[in-house]
Write a structure and sequence with these properties.
The protein has 210 residues and is mainly alpha-helical. It is built from eight helices and no strands. The protein has two domains: 2-89; 124-187, no CATH class.
Length: 210
């Protein structure tokens, strides 16, 4: 029975993966229709998983509010914000659209969410100062080069329109060496995703059986 519980989910996952893969790279009408149905089913399952996650948030933070404690106020604010956004965004009000494009939800994002994000982004200044101090304390060539590049980018960003040369240097740093590093990371992520997909198709990885 234990072996059957391992074999059946693995066989279903391999079959579904191969069907979707054939539909992506081929043009067989029947396979394409089956792949579309499977993808739609996965979207529905993901929607139910999102709903279960919402119920779990309500359960966990509701328990924290009942138990009290130092962080119960944050849980209360979280639940109130969640319910307010849901109450405003789910039902259509008059001839206005529902969901994220609802004017009330847009107002919340523009006047509450964005200022909070800006305040959190402002904390990056202190993080960069701390990182710069740690770079100086290492006293080696790599740290000096990294600190110099960071200062050039910051000065070029602040001195926009005042010192055109620094702006050009900042743009070159962001467009050439930084973009090269980002592309290398993206290539590594893509190769990792392909390798994980191959392992799932071969049945080596079985997260659904855990």
């Amino acid at each position: 029975m234990a072996a059957l519980k391992r074999v059946v989910p693995t066989a279903i996952a391999i079959a579904v993966g191969l069907l979707v893969l054939v539909a992506v790279f081929g043009s067989i009408p029947l396979v394409d229709a089956v792949a579309v149905y499977l993808i739609d089913a996965a979207v529905i399952v993901a929607a139910f998983a999102f709903f279960l996650g919402l119920l779990n948030v309500l359960r966990v933070h509701g328990r924290k509010i009942r138990e009290g404690g130092a962080n119960s106020l944050y849980s209360f604010v979280l639940l109130v914000a969640l319910l307010v956004v849901l109450a405003l965004g789910l039902p259509p009000l008059g001839n206005q659209p529902s969901g994220p494009s609802q004017p009330a939800v847009q107002w919340i994002f523009q006047n509450i969410q964005l200022p909070v994000q800006a305040a959190l982004s402002a904390l990056l200044v202190f993080l960069m100062i701390t990182a710069g101090y740690r770079l100086v304390s290492h006293r080696n060539l790599e740290s000096a080069v990294m600190l110099l590049v960071a200062l050039l980018v910051l000065v070029g960003q602040v001195a926009a329109g005042l010192v055109p040369v620094l702006v050009d240097v900042k743009d070159w740093i962001l467009d050439v060496p930084t973009m090269a590093g980002v592309r290398g990371i993206l290539l590594g992520v893509a190769l990792g995703a392909v390798l994980t997909g191959i392992r799932l198709l071969l049945g080596v990885e079985r997260p659904y059986s855990d």
